[in-house]
Amino acid sequence: MTQLETVELNIQGMTCDSCATHVAKALQNVPGVKEVNVPGWRSGQARVIAEPETSSEALAVAVRRAGYRAAIRTRRALEGAATTNGSGSHYDLMVIGGGSAGFAAAIKGAELGFEVALVEAATIGGTCVNVGCVPSKTLIRAVELHHLAGQRRFDGIQTHPGKIRWPAVIADKDELVGEMRQAKYADVLAAYPSITYVEGHARLTGKNGVGIDGRAYTPDRIIIATGAHPWAPPISGLAESGYLTSTTAMALKELPESMIVLGANAVGLELAQTFARAGTTVTLLELLPRIAPFEDETISAALAGYLEAEGLKIVTSFQARQVARQDGRYAVTGVQPDGNERSFDAEQLLVATGRRPNTADMGLEESGVRLGKRGEILVNERLQTSNPAVYAAGDVTGQDMFVYTAAYAGGLAAENALTNAGRVYDTDYIPRITFTDPQIASAGLTETQARRQGYEVQVSTLPMELVPRAQAARDTRGFIKVIVDRETDRLLGAHVLAPEGGDIIQTAVLALRFGIPVQQLRETMFPYLTNVEGLKLALLGLEKDVALLSCCAS
Question: Which residues are catalytic?
Answer without folding.
Answer: 14, 16, 19, 68, 128, 133, 551-552
